[in-house]
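Bug #77: duplicate submission created two jobs. Keeping one. Sequence:
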Amino acid sequence: MRHGDLFSSEIRSGDTVLLIDGLYHHNPALRHKEILDALARGVHVAGASSIGAMRAAELDDFGMTGHGAIYQDYRSGTIDGDDEVAVAHRDEGDRRTGTVALINLRYTLAPAVTRGLLSQSAADLAIVRARRIYYPLRTLSALLHDLTDAGLDDVVFFLSGCDGLVDQKKADALGAIRTLTVDETASAEFDLPNTAFLRDWRNAIQYADEFQRVRYQQIFNPAFVDVWPSVRDRLVRAHATASTLSALVDGEHARIFRPRFDLGDRTTLAMLLREEREDDRERAARLVASTKAFREQQPRWRATVLHDHVAEGLLTELWDTSEFDEGALERGFRYPREALDAFNAFALGYVLEGQR
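Kept job's structure:
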């Protein structure tokens, strides 16, 4: 599971999600707020084995349930780092790992210490040495080579004679699948703060189609400079709890507020799209598709193909302004970088369109 997966419209109140492992390194990891958001929506979220065990230990007070020995280790503080469960595998296809998880090494060495086959100090040093190997490179052969260099011959002899390491991650995952029952329900009893980050993630993932349409309006529709003030004022008033802030909303300082809109609010969405025409939707989809197609044909090009100064020049011309920062603010972007990032989804299609 990766960042954004829990925002799927297919996950509804009453559903059960078992979080086991996660995609990261080349993907943003699953955030705590995403799990809390799912719990607040009535989704039962359980975790085991890997990032699921870690997140469950961190969030079980909020209703997430944990399963397995690794979860208990995190819960008790026996382990506390994500490096304990990290392994390398592909994002797609065959996701079997060829690297050693520290937690599996721990569960392999612990019985040997109990039985007197290894000293506790040797086992502890082996863990320290293993942790120093970058996790995507921590294959069993690399580990044995490093332990040999460290003079841990007893550990090397023991591991070499094992019929594979104890796979506690797998055992916990299978155990959670077997014991997780469909009648378990979410027990979230908390108010989830609707932060700007949470709204950003929902907009970009849960409401991706609507978000693309709004971004097009912000960038390409000249009338959006007249749309934004009313949206901004509504959002600011909704969050204005102090009398001083409420007074500022009606003054000349109102324009300095840069609230993040929530596309889950259908009234806000309708206001943002009030000047949208059917051909806007068609062109937005066409520009995005053209941009994606070009990137697929040119895989060596960076995701952000246009240099910032080129993109700024195009937007300044498009907005008929001499001040890029001012133009971005007038169109509801919180900062200039956000405008450039938004334009990036359409940029190549826009440039190619102008060459036809």
